[in-house]
Amino acid sequence: MGYVVSTIRDVAKQAGVSTMTVSRVLNNSGYVSADTRERVEKAISDLGYVPNSLARSLRSKSTRTVALVLTDVTNPFFTTLVRGAEDVASRHDFNLILCNTDESEAKQTQYLTVLLQKRVDGVLLVPARSTSEPVTWLQRQGVPVVVVDRRVPSADVDAVRCDSEQGAYEMTRYLLGLGHRRIALLTGPAGVSTAQDRVNGYRRALHECSLNEGDELIAYGEFAPHSGYRMAQQVLDLPERPTALFAANNFIAAGAYRAVRDAGLSIPADLSMVAFDDLPAGLAVEPFMTVIEQPAYEMGSRAAELLFARLSGRAPSACQEVILPIRLIVRCSSGAPS
Amino acid sequence: MGYVVSTIRDVAKQAGVSTMTVSRVLNNSGYVSADTRERVEKAISDLGYVPNSLARSLRSKSTRTVALVLTDVTNPFFTTLVRGAEDVASRHDFNLILCNTDESEAKQTQYLTVLLQKRVDGVLLVPARSTSEPVTWLQRQGVPVVVVDRRVPSADVDAVRCDSEQGAYEMTRYLLGLGHRRIALLTGPAGVSTAQDRVNGYRRALHECSLNEGDELIAYGEFAPHSGYRMAQQVLDLPERPTALFAANNFIAAGAYRAVRDAGLSIPADLSMVAFDDLPAGLAVEPFMTVIEQPAYEMGSRAAELLFARLSGRAPSACQEVILPIRLIVRCSSGAPS
DNA sequence: CCGGTGTATGTTATCCATAACATGTGTTAC
DNA sequence: GTAACACATGTTATGGATAACATACACCGG
């Protein structure tokens, strides 16, 4: 009970020096004799002193902390992205705070408020919705932002992402090339740029083939397995069943895959299936699906690097947009329509 | 550029009051007239003022933040546990910081250091290894701890978990009851209490049946799919193949499941399979496995409640150990040996 | 009319560290 | 011999908020 947390003053007294000298030892700044340093270090360890970063940050105006605000920590795409950001952050000796918004704008606002209050030095943001408002808010508060994975309209901000429109276009072209004409697209919320861009790329490819289907083959839902399941059911129930399913992300694909199996259809014999984002190899399904792979790790690391470039002032004043290349990986879930 | 972040002083000046009055408005404490409150609130919103929680916490000696340190954020068992903790935290108007140690003691130490520096008010800890050291360290620094899911030896600390030994015992009894005699156990790292307890429960059940197998049927690995895959391969390659596989957690089960399929065996015809922790329903495998289910959400919420009880002083001075009940859910992955 | 109580606001000290500046050695250079 | 400089340490001001205390007025009861 009642353990007393010691302060820099206690350490100074114990070591017989001023607090400033202790501070120098802690920060390895300025001059300290070997002898003094040793005494101070002994005092620190004797007292079990842990510096108070609140006080430290208050004075130094830097928390050495950045935040990564994303929409779904459980998605392997994002966990990989996190590792990329983490590695860069720890290389810069920064802490990374993870905030999971669950695709909710309200939660996002709440987290950004807390982050501003905690005075994080910068934010990596995967926006829950396609609005520039949160970005400009952070910027007005003097917090550098890098927008990751998704677009926000008309914001003057650093950004790292892949070209979802182009990716969806290429994937759709690939399916068309196999001979598919009825291709269903299962996508995310209409308000999310990646969901919309993938629709646009899909449409562009279809239009090029003069396939102007109505929108019955496009299903909007959430980036979640249960939603993928429902959307797949929905398009499989259409009078004229599609010959190919294009899931706009890995979780939608996972759910859709179950729906297809539950419907007694086999892949790719009865139906081709492709997806955006690779599927988690470890989890029960072996990697067999034809996918558009995005370099998630690199997205995280490049975004973090951009942020640290801003933080250190080593960045060009103009904002940078980094578009990373995607890769179409053909596996055995896709083939010519029967 | 150069946006100026405003302080409570700026707000006070703008509203023509003292900083103390602004503080009262912010914290809804003390007396403030309706008229003044309105002026202050206008000033706050005009300036886009965001209170500095560093300064606030420094003075008030409370960060209104607790941390949940766990070993694998990607595991649905833990994400569910997180939600339990989150809900309770937000009900108490506290922030929850998530720290992912990846089962590494080094990472755990690093995170705890940062948390102490940031002066979190409390910690929920899923210990990476069975050592009481990190717990006593936190306690000596005056930070209340609740140990979750896993045991640490001889520590005087609040704890919430399930009885892994008993769960494994019951599951093994169940398999023995079906007629299985060669039951392989795929478990986690030897240094983790849940991994070890599950071995102990398994052994107890076997001993009761006078089945004193050597340890060739016990494989130690990591709580991860790739490890489950390898361990399954290992026991499937034994001269006398086991008739049942018992995975000590869901991720091991997911990997083992793939190994079984890759070996061309079918479940439960050729081999029964059971697991500790339910499998993620959403991810490609439908829930079909016989499991010991732990109340993950409740573990998180109860642990958080215990922590807040301590924080508010409303807790009995003696430490509490909460052992939550588990449930054996029989599904179609297990049957009598062929 | 006086003291007690509730309301409304302000002043000062403080939280714990670091920035900025000051001071005092000893050594080197010319 | 002394200016210049590296080295070593200390003193004071400061960051942005709240705790603790102080002040002042209004209203009420006796």
Set down the secondary structure blueprint.
2 copies of one chain form a homodimer.
Chain A: H1 8-15, H2 19-27, H3 34-47, H4 53-60, E1 65-70, H5 76-91, E2 95-100, H6 105-117, E3 122-125, H7 133-140, E4 145-148, E5 158-162, H8 164-178, E6 183-187, H9 193-208, E7 218-220, H10 225-236, E8 244-247, H11 250-262, E9 272-276, E10 290-293, H12 296-311, E11 321-324, E12 327-329
Helix pairs in contact in A: 1-2, 1-3, 5-12, 8-9, 10-11
Chain A binds a DNA duplex (30 and 30 nucleotides) through residues 7-9, 17-24, 26-27, 29-33, 36, 51-61.
Name the helicity range of chain A. 40-55%
Please state the CA-atom Rg of chain A, rounded to the nearest Å.
25 Å
Oligomerization status of the protein chains = homodimer
Helical/strand content category of chain A: alpha/beta
- How is the main sheet of chain A built? 6 strands, parallel
Mean pLDDT of chain A, rounded to whole units? 94
- Beta content of chain A comes to 15-25%
Apparent shape of chain A: elongated
**Poorly predicted tracts of residues of chain A:** none
Question: How would you explain this protein's 3D organization?
Answer:
With about 350 residues, chain A is of the alpha/beta class. Helix content of chain A is about 45%, strand content about 15%. Chain A is built from 12 helices and 12 strands. The first copy, chain A, has helices at about 10-15, 20-25, 35-45, 55-60, 75-90, 105-115, 135-140, 165-180, 195-210, 225-235, 250-260, 295-310, and strands at about 65-70, 95-100, 120-125, 145-150, 160, 185, 220, 245, 270-275, 290-295, 320-325, 325-330. In chain A, the strands form 2 sheets. Chain A has a 6-stranded parallel sheet, sandwiched between helices. A 6-stranded mixed sheet of chain A has the order 7-6-8-9-10-12, sandwiched between helices. The longest helix of chain A has 16 residues, at about 75-90. Chain A is elongated and about 85 Å long. The first copy, chain A, starts with 7 loop residues before the first helix and ends in a 9-residue tail after the last strand. At the A-B interface, α4, β2, α6 and α11 of A face α4, β2, α6 and α11 of B.
